[in-house]
Design a protein that fits this description.
Two copies of one chain form a homodimer. With 252 residues, the first copy, chain A, is an alpha/beta fold. Chain A has two domains: 158 residues, MoaB/Mog-like domain (Molybdenum Cofactor Biosythetic Enzyme, Chain A), CATH 3.40.980.10; 75 residues, Alpha-Beta Plaits (2-Layer Sandwich), CATH 3.30.70. Chain A contains nine helices and twelve strands. The interface between A and B is large, with 71 and 71 residues.
């Protein structure tokens, strides 16, 4: 380890409903967890409005500085679904009807009133794109260059991620180990800082909580190296115990 | 209406735990909903890692193009809490101990082991900052120029937002009205698009769902003008009914 390439991805969450507070986003955590398993780190996320220029700006910045760029939202049949248009603008390509997507939609809607103008919108792709299978609801996701356009509805996104599992090149997955203690994090800040410093390939996150009338925290050690991770975990456990706290393996 | 100033805010969610998928963010929806009531629109959100340069980059871009910039996360007592340092770097000011914050913390921890190095970290602010009251857990939020630095733990953030309520200048709040129908959105895409087009000050969002074995959608009409909103809502209801769907006021 050490010199191995770290693969990164960015995510753009597209939709006025997230920015208005109407909808609680669930795709950030879902995409992040899935990426970890692929050996890819989610490096940054942006939530942008249903606005062509805002989407295109974010796309061009984030695709350039990450190995992969995911988007969620805006690939449905209605007038506020403009992700395909915005990404085609960003890439400088035309919007075309993908024949395989059209065939999928015609088949999916055969007993549901057939294809219409709105449904055909879901066959529109940036020219040169491939499809990502959607086992849930017909309309496919879209892959073009290093971009992956996914649905906004979380369970549909989940199906699309499942279809992509194992197809993206990644690096060593980021491993983690969690320790918990009924300790105010302000009491053991020094132990956390010094332990992290002593184990160069590791980072330690501290996540306080308030339960049962008292405070505690979980400490997550992260590393791509299994031995370093274990050494750091053991050292942190010892430091917390030395400071007078019982430590719960796996977190509280 | 029409020429009234629209006030916007951006939000930076700071924390590796969001990007790793470990923690499901709740602050985006919470801050968005609160801003709406203040007459301020959440225009964009970025989620960034616990990294000085990434935070500073996002701060300088977003504070310049919005009336307000909020951050959540990274103002606690541990080594991974670097928001104050990153924002001081972005603003080009020193990090100083705020005497009132120090006094608040000394008082808060008087029966809890007293002040220590970690706890004193929570009195550090960018030079020139004011404090935002934290009724939950002592350590205050921070206001400097058009920046508002809030906690990462959602219920603490909620208390800080409460302390700020009514103190920020805003414009006309964005009003909304919701209609629901057991309609596949792909069946009424045309009605949505044409209704939105006919009511210039209004936008219509379409949010599909799948429940009880069938599909439906809620349609949210948004406008800052109460009359325009009502006219658009009535027109959309009529269009959906004409297309053969029962419409539920307030959404399904």
């Amino acid at each position: 380890m050490g010199n191995e390439k770290i693969y990164t991805a960015a995510l753009i969450v597209i939709g006025d409903e997230i920015l208005s507070g109407r909808t609680q986003d669930k795709n950030i955590a879902q995409v992040a967890s899935w990426l970890n398993i692929q050996g890819i780190r989610l490096a940054e996320v942006r939530v942008v409005a249903d606005d062509m220029d805002h989407i295109a700006e974010a796309v061009n910045i984030l695709r350039a500085r990450n190995d992969y760029l995911f988007t969620t939202g805006g690939i449905g049949p209605t007038h506020d679904d403009i992700t395909v248009d915005a990404i085609s603008q960003a890439l400088g390509v035309d919007v075309v009807i993908h024949p395989a997507a059209r065939a999928i939609l015609e088949k999916y809607y055969v007993d549901k009133g057939g294809i219409n103008e709105g449904r055909l919108r879901m066959a529109r792709v940036p020219e040169g794109a491939e499809l990502i299978e959607n086992r849930m609801s017909g309309a496919p996701g879209i892959k073009i260059e290093n971009l992956f356009l996914m649905a906004g509805v979380p369970h549909i996104t989940a199906g699309m991620l499942d279809a992509l599992t194992g197809t993206l090149e990644g690096g060593a997955p980021l491993l983690s180990a969690t320790l918990g203690a009924w300790a105010p994090e302000s009491e053991i800040a020094k132990e956390l800082r010094e332990t992290e410093k002593a184990y160069e390939g590791c980072v330690i996150g501290s996540y306080p909580f308030f339960r049962k009338g008292t405070v505690g925290a979980n400490f997550v050690v992260r590393s791509t190296d299994v031995d370093e991770l274990e050494n750091c975990r053991v050292a942190l456990k010892a430091a917390l115990e030395k400071a007078g706290y019982d430590v719960t393996e796996g977190g509280i």
